Amino acid sequence: MADSVIDLENISVLFEQEGQTIKAVNDVTIHVNKGDIYGVVGYSGAGKSTLVRVINLLQKPTSGKVVVNGETLFEKNGQQSATEIDTKQLRAKRRGIGMIFQHFNLLEERTVSQNIEFALKHSGQKEKAIQARAQKLLELVGLGDRGKAFPAQLSGGQQQRVAIARALANDPEILISDEATSALDPKNTIQILDLLKRVNQELGLTVVLITHEMDAVKRIANKVAVMSDGQIVERGSIVDVFTNPKYPLTKELIGTAGESEKARRILATHPVQAAADQWELLHLTYTGPSVIDPVVTELYQKFDVEVSIIFGNVDELQGIPVGTLFVTMTGAPEKRQQAISYLHEEKIGVSKIEKEAAE
Amino acid sequence: MAWFAKYFPNVITLGWGGEDGWLTAIGQTIYMTFWSALFGGILGLIFGVGLVLFDKGGIKENRLWFNIFDKVVSFFRAIPFIILLAFIAPVTQKIVGTQIGTTAALVPLSLGMFPFYARQIQVALESVDHGKIEAAQSVGATFSDLIFSVYLQEARSEIARVTTVTLISLIGLTAMAGAIGAGGLGNTAIAYGYNRFDNDVTLVATFLVLIFVLIVQLVGDFLAKRLSHKSA
């Protein structure tokens, strides 16, 4: 792939723990293209952090191949001994891959400016130039006047901004964000995410965004991979995955599972006045505005089925409005079948929801 | 000063200078503390840093070296100081050319304090969050950057604190060095005070050691506070 900047191929990372071998990452292949904001989601312990640490070799894989910008950094297959670039080259390469962390990881005994200057120590520039660059980076993240402060004097959100400035110091092409918003309050989370989006657009940076918060991915990512037990169970464009999640965990993370439960709760208090085989509970997803209203009317006219909305919601993914509706469809079974086929033709995602919660 | 001459006659008899004078004893204590703190400190720092680097999950993880460092430190820590004085006398002879005297005492003192200091440094450096190491590595920090700019700098307040503790225990050790003719305030208290039943001498020597410890403690606390920019 010509425009891919990160290629991880068949990566496995094994840990030995108390005599047991734990597969933190199990044969994962992932390609990230230039300019992507690639979300990797999953619960803690799924192996997300381990996987992304492989990109800059903070974590050496047990086997697999790591290619960044077309250059192979590490390769090991089976019992072969590993081939990897030497330490000096790796250090240089790491400067091209910025990274930010959940707990910011700033050096607390250095001022904000000195933290950024630390990243530029080996840039070959004169001290004056380094100081000027640090100041420019601080202005980029909106902290131009806090250079002399120590990290402990800043709020969490501000510290993360400094960490972003540090990560950007050496003009990297890639920025890895490892749960960078997980320790922040909602307002700061949004500000940091928007800042990541901005550097993605303005500096053409490729971002790998690790998080357990689906909302973060929803806000800025264009692609997403869902990780569970060291493997990627589902991946694709953000709109596809959100409108048509396949794997149960994905549904759970997106919140479909919770929303289905809510739909059932509402139905329990407002029961449908029809025999059990005469109606069903559906979850509809559709992209683009104002597609759904005419369709609902048409269903009634063409197929003689009645659709009533329990509740709905519209999200925006990459500027595209994505609607979600929980509805009941009442009518004869074969009519309902025809109606669902028609919805598919209209590019509306349909999934049946159990009327009773499965125990 | 008449009351002092009345209650502390033997203190005055010892005088300031001379072989058994107070200034001589104070000078010997400072001399022993300073030089053994320097030699033992460097040794302890090297071992403390080594223990952290070679440990499991350390940046130079190495089981063999970790075990060597760990065992050496444990071995020297296990020997009671008064026995160490005698035990390493042949080594002292080789290094200093004599087994007795103030300078000769520097060898056992350095060896006596370094394992204690190494353990303290180890704990201080382990307090540095591994995330800071990772962050530094992610911006391409070199090995020496990690040691000096991350580990030692981030732990500097902690290091000031443990250095204070170590210095105070080192002052304690110098008091025993009188056993090999090193002099010092400890020796004054025992040889000229206790052994001669001149309790006034013991009292004053103890008081001087206390002042000495107090100064170290105050300076150490001040530095530890001054060097920290961490919150809470």
From TrEMBL, chain A:
Organism: Lentilactobacillus farraginis DSM 18382 = JCM 14108
Residue span(s) of domain ABC transporter: 6-254
PANTHER family: AMINO ACID IMPORT ATP-BINDING PROTEIN, METHIONINE IMPORT ATP-BINDING PROTEIN METN
Cell division is among the record's keywords: no
Keyword line: Amino-acid transport, ATP-binding, Cell membrane, Membrane, Nucleotide-binding, Translocase, Transport
Xref: InterPro entries: AAA+_ATPase (IPR003593), ABC_transporter-like_ATP-bd (IPR003439), ABC_transporter-like_CS (IPR017871), ACT-like_dom_sf (IPR045865), MetN_ABC (IPR041701), MetN_ABC_transporter-like (IPR050086), NIL_domain (IPR018449), P-loop_NTPase (IPR027417)
Signal peptide location: none
GO process annotations (BP): amino acid transport
Gene Ontology terms, MF aspect: ATP binding; ATP hydrolysis activity
Protein name: ABC transporter, ATP-binding protein
UniProt keyword ATP-binding, yes or no: yes
From TrEMBL, chain B:
Residue ranges annotated for the ABC transmembrane type-1 domain, each copy included: 26-220
Pfam annotation, one family: BPD_transp_1
Gene Ontology biological-process annotations: D-methionine transmembrane transport
Main localization (coarse): membrane
Gene3D superfamilies: MetI-like
Name of this chain's protein: ABC transporter permease protein
Protein's membrane topology: Multi-pass membrane protein
CDD domains xrefs: TM_PBP2 (cd06261)
InterPro entries for this protein: AA_ABC_Transporter_Permease, MetI-like, MetI-like_sf
Assigned protein family: Belongs to the binding-protein-dependent transport system permease family.
Spans through the membrane: 30-54, 75-92, 98-118, 162-183, 203-224
UniProt subcellular location: Cell membrane
